[in-house]
Design brief:
By secondary structure, the protein is mainly beta. About 10% of the residues lie in helices and about 40% in strands. It has a 6-stranded antiparallel beta sheet, covered by helices on one side. This is Thioester dehydrase.
Length: about 130
């Protein structure tokens, strides 16, 4: 089993109910191993894991997903790629709308509905360690 590790975070910007991360998706990440032999691609489940972790940390939720909605994986994320992860927080619905993109190129998008348990220890919010 591969341990969940975040990619390298180049930059983070929070404005109101939206957060954006510039990520470098290193080809050295174990998630690429065996997925696929002909051309390594970042698995969709890894993209979801990162969106949940970063979004929950940024907006103070416990990582407790209720449902995933309208998931779309439009383009493959290849090794050694820079992408932006953008998450819009809909607090009244306990949801995140996320997308992975680079300029006008869309890689993936969807909605994450959370069980509305807010993390009461806000001292831990925004203390994300990125992979080296």
């Amino acid at each position: 089993m591969i341990k969940s590790v975040l990619p390298q975070i180049i930059h983070q910007h929070i404005e109101g109910e939206q957060c954006q991360w510039r990520l470098f998706i290193s080809g050295e990440l174990a998630f690429f191993d065996g997925h696929f032999p002909e051309q390594a691609v970042l698995p969709g489940v890894t993209q979801l894991d990162w969106a949940v972790k970063l979004g929950c940390n940024a907006f103070g939720y416990n990582a407790n997903v209720a449902t995933l909605e309208v998931l779309k994986f439009q383009q493959l994320i290849l090794p050694n790629t820079y992408v932006d992860l953008v998450i819009e927080h809909q607090a009244h619905k306990s949801k995140f709308i996320f997308s992975y993109r680079d300029s006008d190129k869309r890689f993936a998008s969807g909605r994450i509905a959370l069980n509305s348990s807010i993390n009461t220890d806000m001292n831990t919010a925004m203390n994300i360690e990125s992979a080296s």
